[in-house]
Amino acid sequence: MGERRGAAVRAAAVVLGAGACYCLWRLAASGRRGPRAAAAPGPPSDNSTPVSTHAMDADALQKLIHLLQVTDDPLIQEQALITLSNSAAFSVNQDIIRNLDGLSVIGGMLSDCIPKVKEKALNALNNLSMNIKNQEEIQVYITQVCGSVESAPLNSDLQLAGLRLLTNMSVTSDYHHKMINSIPYFLRLLSEGTERTQIQVLKVLVNLSANSAMTRHLLRAQVPSLLLLFDTSINRDILLRALVFAANLKKNVKIEDSAGIQDQYSEDSIFFTLCRGSTPFAQKLGSLLHHPDTEVKEQVVRILTQ
């Protein structure tokens, strides 16, 4: 046991040293580079993937992964996960961590009862999910991540970390079906969440709404406050994403022929709010045609012409 604990302490030193070097490099690099583009297509992501030769070597990454396996100290676990998350900002490390079975080790930390440890694990998986091959392994945790989002304190960093990971995992439609049961809760966050939470959950909902297979699951949901998102005074990022969400659904309903499917929805569903010529929604769109933001007006026109 003493030898096992000693190995953990030695590994912790590697973690602290690697983390400090990384932070120093990021501070220096931030002065040299402008904004970085998102690495994945679709809605903007909260993370990017710079490619650099300043990457941790496989031996250091292996020590970090081993550390997570041998220590039960939450502070050491947090630091190890933070350093792995930072290292995953480099694309070469994303592959190395996967090849070292790091994804399953980090994924195992999602069962930790300590919120901060779980949050740091979600952040690490989020950065690692910028890699398609990694997504193929991370997708097994989607149901668990959805559960964490629902059980986390409202608007907490833990909840936002889960939503960020789901945003990346929903850029393609491959894993949308794993999020179906959480759709009612996602939509609930539009009513109860802060602006930061609303923006993040809308990123997930926009991705889901682009998939016609998810249309009926979204349209049958009930969101009494949905119309409040289409107000001229609302946060521009919220408004724009809400409009894209509505435009995607309207497009998919048109493809399916709304006249033939309206009997499937209740009168307080999203379908009747957005897709049945709702006078309040039409009035909202009319006002938004005069919005100063060009992208907002483009999405309004997109809705009106479908």
Layout of helices and strands:
Layout: H1 2-30, H2 58-70, H3 74-87, H4 91-99, H5 102-108, H6 115-128, H7 132-138, H8 142-151, H9 157-169, H10 183-192, H11 195-209, H12 215-219, H13 236-256, H14 270-274, H15 279-288, H16 294-304
Helix pairs in contact: 1-2, 1-3, 2-3, 3-6, 6-9, 8-9, 9-11, 10-11, 11-13, 13-16
* Biggest sheet overview: none
| Quaternary status | single chain
Label the CATH architecture of the largest domain. Answer: Alpha Horseshoe
Number of helices: 16
CATH class of the largest domain: Mainly Alpha
Number of strands: 0
* SSE pattern: HHHHHHHHHHHHHHHH
- Outline: elongated
| CATH topology group of the largest domain | Leucine-rich Repeat Variant
- The figure for the number of domains is 2
| Mean pLDDT rating | 84
The structure class reads mainly alpha
Could you name the ranges where pLDDT drops below 50 across 5 or more consecutive residues? Answer: 18-54
Rg calculated over all Cα atoms: 22 Å
Level of helix content? 55-70%
